[in-house]
């Protein structure tokens, strides 16, 4: 099944695009102190290494906003400044060369200030993400709905959008985050029926690694399956490189990124070889290789090749011998101790042949 992406407006962010059919990007946030540019740079470079496409930083004072220029010089991906309440921080972030603002125009002190920020952003070709969050809805909206319902989140976004459109600004990305998966999914669906601004998906305050991974895969994944969503952020209490790895994993298993995929069986009482360490080695090998192959590591020769028929290549072990199969057909039998090396040799050969056929 191919996901049919919902058409959205194409928004430029630095050297890339969000929406309008652009590949779904993966974002994270800097968790280092914004007053320490070197620590921020190091963290962003680590995020780049694991495949982060866009990085955001929160700023609470002018001193830290003035570090944007220093940081920008050393990094290679678009930088987003997350600004609340003080429009002068937004103006300075723009002067410092930031690539995108995350700012809610209803929170910066009136129409004149919205116009000042929007005009400066427009002049520099910088978009604005309206980030609606269940925890910080406008008082009147919360009073009207009683809770941060999907309708309340969308109404909040609509009000912020109106403020920007009133000053002739339409380079807008929107997010509608809550920590409840079902509310988040319903809010984004509702928004998509009414607007064509591109969407930044995320389940916020999603918890520690396991909980964040599950909630993000459910919330972000179900929307992407419906074609909704243009950029994603996995919010995790923990290492931000993990946020990127989980985000990429979500995209890859929906066919939105061409990356290596490991199929491995859960093992059962038919397994009589040490599959798990081999599966980990194979995963590490194909990840560093980066070629978009599907490789299987299966527990037994009886069911393995059939269960992993979709794999480009795979192995199944057992009884001190292993088999190698391609698209479900057994092509070789090798001693168990040579199984990994033989698999790697054949993967390399496949990658080489694919490279030649492209030339
Ligand atoms: S492939 Fe074989 S060992 Fe693995 S779960 Fe299936 S039956 Fe069990």
How is this structure best described in words?
The chain contains 13 helices and 15 strands. By secondary structure, it is an alpha/beta fold. The strands form 3 sheets. It has an 8-stranded parallel beta sheet with strand order 8-7-6-5-4-3-10-9. A 5-stranded mixed beta sheet has the order 11-12-13-14-15. Helix 4 runs parallel beside helix 5 and helix 8 packs parallel to helix 9. It is elongated, with a radius of gyration of 24 Å.
Features:
TIM Barrel, Sulfite Reductase Hemoprotein, domain 1, 2 domains, binds iron/sulfur cluster, 359 residues, eight-stranded parallel β-sheet, 13 helices, alpha/beta, five-stranded mixed β-sheet, single chain
Query: Distance between termini?
Result: 29 Å
Largest sheet: 8 strands, parallel
Strand-residue fraction? 15-25%
How confident overall, as mean pLDDT? 95
Small molecules bound:
iron/sulfur cluster
In spatial order, strands of the major sheet run 8-7-6-5-4-3-10-9
What is the general shape?
Answer: elongated
Q: Helix- and strand-based class?
A: alpha/beta
CATH architecture of the largest domain: Alpha-Beta Barrel
Rg (C-alpha, Å) = 24 Å
- The count of helical stretches stands at 13
Q: Which spans have pLDDT < 50 for at least 5 consecutive residues?
A: none
Q: What's the CATH topology label of the largest domain?
A: TIM Barrel
CATH class of the largest domain: Alpha Beta
What's the domain count?
A: 2
